[in-house]
Amino acid sequence: MPKPETVIQEHADIDERIYQVRLDSGLSVAVLPRPGFTKAYATYATHYGSIDNAFKVPGTDRTVSVPDGIAHFLEHKMFEKEGGGDAFDDFSRYGASSNAYTDYVSTTFLFSTTSHLQENMDILLDFVQRPYFTEENVAKEKGIIEQEIRMYLDMPGDRLHSNLMKALYHHNSVRLDVTGSVESIRTIRPEDLYLCHRTFYHPSNMHVFVTGDVDAERVIAQVAEAQASREAQPQPPIEREYPHEPAEVRESRVEYRMPVAAPLFMMGFKDEPNHLKGRELLRREIVAAFMWNVLVGRSSSFFARLYEQGLINNRFQAHYTAGLTYGFSVLGSETPDPERLEAELRDTLDKLPISQQDLERQQRRELGEYVGLFQNLEELAYVHNHLVFRGSSLFDIPDLIGSIRVEDMEEFRARQLSPSQTAVSVIFPE
Amino acid sequence: MTEGAVGFRGHFEAGRGWYCYPTKRFKTLSVYAYWLNPLTAGETSGGALVPQILRRASQSWNSTVLVERRLEELYGASFRAEVGKIGDQQLLSFQFDAVNGRFLPGHPDMLSQGLNFVREMMYRPLTVDGRFDRAIFEQEKVLLGRQIQALINDKGRYALNRLVEVLADGQRFGISRLGTLEEAERLTMDDVLKVYTELQRRCPLIWFVVGDVDPNAVQQAFDASPEMADTRGPLATMTKFRPHGQARAVVDRQPVQQGKVNLGYATGITANDPDYPALVMYAGVLGGFPHSKLFMNVREKASLAYYAYARLDAVLGLMIVGAGIEFDNFDAAVDIINQQVDLMRQGSISDEEMQFTFKGLTNEIRAENDSPGRIIGRQLERVLVGGGPSGPQLIEALSQVTKQDVMRVAEQVRLDATYFLTTDRQGQSAAQ
Description:
A: 430 residues; alpha+beta; Cytochrome Bc1 Complex, Chain A, domain 1; 2 domains; 7-stranded mixed sheet; 14 strands; B: 432 residues; 15 helices; 41% helix; globular
């Protein structure tokens, strides 16, 4: 069998290159060396997040639904090891700091280290492929995750967003909290976790990314060797079931009370189901970021007007988020008068002019932020993985920034601001 | 005169100074400036309002829109003007981060752009007849009041602030960095102008530059700058926490979903104390990492919490332990925390715990080098506390710490206050 070939992509202007390879097991690996950095940062991520809760059991025709929050639960449980101890300890032995997180579309395991890269890589590549779930250790985790959920329940910004997502979406599981609920996680059993692990933690559904002062060829060779020794059985593509989602929102308004000082306001705009992916999806994300910055960003006169009227504060922001099956924008902040703020937004957003100068300022800003990304290894890895699971790559960004025109923003505004696709979430003081 | 730690050029003398950390590691350039102002009861909100006002407009960019557009033109440079606190000092920070011109079209000189921008915002505010713009003043005053009221929104931070208040019991470090609502509402233009004049003329001033720059160019820029010419007020000596001596307990009730327990301990050891490295090891073994006693026992064994930690305030000589728990589990959680603190005193610490903690701390300290913000933070703390090891020297000192050293500092760690934020509903428990 021929050796898989490493492809090197280069962005000479900023002196960056990325090494990428897909191994025989199906695992894809990318290394972005950052010479001069003290630490190395590695992630091992699966294309499996909170929205993947219905799927075909591999090798059968049977479709199953698993409890909400199971991807996040599985992330917690992967650290547990057969025979006691956990992966945290293994990393501690080599001075690395480790962690993991789950979002709508992926679960990511990571470490950061300033020594023993090879040993820590071995630990990462091993523990994520070695599930160990028992009745007892699953029961124990429920207490811990219940406290995690309750911590989020007390965070007003989190509640505001969570309520908005439930109003925007009828069926798509982006409407649910990534952690699931106290009730849903109580129903999780070891066999559910094994099934999800077997289905979604197959190398062909996963990606390794390493950055920092590292030797790319050596890292790739190490991952290839670890994979070869595992001899993963080939697996057909995973069939995920996503329910049909109507274009309209489920509810146009949702209100809630909590112990906060002043009301919190958030407005959401659901994007039409579009099935964009790869560079097209990335382009949509950049167009959306430009448009929101031009309309209500801190450099806009509309932001200044709302701020000077005391309707918003410095934390007011707008942004667009998308995956392969969903896309939406949110904007908001604390406000003394949610009704007036809402009226201002509804009356004004579709009327504000977008000029060529606005576009050029956004292009400059975005280019600066892109270069700055290579400075922060955690953020770099986050954006890289985000793009990998959507079918594009970091080095696509500069070209796309240059390709955007004022008309792109106008076109996106026209589709995004439709009233039937808009919902509002408000939290009032208790 | 305080020289810079490893990697730094520059000095601090007679109330003002600058430090430069030249490195090719970063593609960005950071220019930060700090003013220090003693926290004083009844006179804190004025200081908090100054950066908010200065941030809004200057003589060259006379509206907030123009300031923001200027930053976008500088390829998305970021500028933050904020108020914080360190020990018993209010810390006003002005932080500019931008991409190094080397990586941008036309290769702009971002060092002078950054220095000019920060200076413009600090020293050339938009004024009319020597007074701040009236509308900006009024708007920011209202927002400051709201910001103070909104402190209850973040329950974790709220609980922490309340514990610090209880511990301080009148000592100045307990004063909120924003002051109180009454104070903010009373502020007049004259009050704020008085604080601003004091900051401009007399309060200690420290600059930092981190990035791929020529330190001689940085030195020339500061040598030529008028605000660095005159001597200023000296850095105040940081006052250590004076413990109450008797452990107090305070409970607050709110309609919350999770209880927050926070315990405050006097350590008596600050960053320039010879025992500081031993205390860092102590706090690490107790609650700095996933292998630490608190995480292992409160979370992994008893399943009581998602987080459980211990952390130090190296300026005040204070340690805080915290966890988020079920309301009914307060006694159980405090019992476990007390047991773990007792075990530290008895020296029930394995070699593995010592090794893992040393390695984990080494990793954290070394990794500071990869973040301009943390490089600056480390040097700032060193200047303010008056020395003490940091970076490689701290790692070296930690490597010498023995279990006996840890037991010795454990003897000095004394519980001073317990704080619990819990539900205001009768009989509410987990079993819903």
